[in-house]
Amino acid sequence: MSKAVYAGTFDPMTYGHLDVAARAAHVFEHLTLAVAEDPRKTLLFSIEERLALARSSVAGLENVEVVPFSGLLVNWARQQGIHTLIRGLRAFSDFEYEFQMALTNRKLAPDIETMFLMPNEDFSYVSSSMVREIAALGGDVDQFVPSPVAAALKKKLAPQ
Questions:
Q1: Is 128 considered catalytic here?
Q2: Catalytic-residue membership of 90
């Protein structure tokens, strides 16, 4: 069975993430969407919230499972028997960072490949940080994120 992992913090999950996941799910028999538990980052949503939002976002993709992960992705992937990492490239500005990460991962785990997928151009400019900023300033994020994510953002960022 061909398996791949698409990992990220998904804070929050955007239509760009969902598009890359759908593309990968079309190429591989099984896709694991791995939601990172990253204590080094300040995240808006907890791991439990991000898992729930990711699961609701990919619910229509039957060959996708959503799981948490921590630690070095290549080590985790190897433990799961996964030999392909999926990375999304939105714009040329992403390339340098992603290229360095792919080469580093190749050095750490030569048996694991990185595959880059580009989202639909309608989502190529969307980032989680931009969505968080728009939502924090009271903007409408419905066109950037699935509806459960938009609702969660509104609730999380509502004035107390």
A1: yes
A2: yes
3 is catalytic: no
Q: Is the pTM of the predicted complex or chain greater than 0.90?
A: yes
Tokens at 128, concatenated:
């989680």
Residue 134: Cβ-neighbour burial (10 angstroms; 0-12, 13-18, 19+): middle
Domains of the chain: 3-124 (3.40.50.620)
Active-site residue identified among 17, 23, 50, 132:
17
> Over the stretch 32-63, which tens digit does the pLDDT of each residue have?
999 999 778 789 999 999 999 999 999 999 99
Which entry of 57, 87, 128, 132 is annotated as an active-site residue?
128
DSSP string, 38-107: -TTS--SS-HHHHHHHHHHHTTT-TTEEEEEE-S-HHHHHHHHT--EEEEE--SHHHHHHHHHHHHHHHH
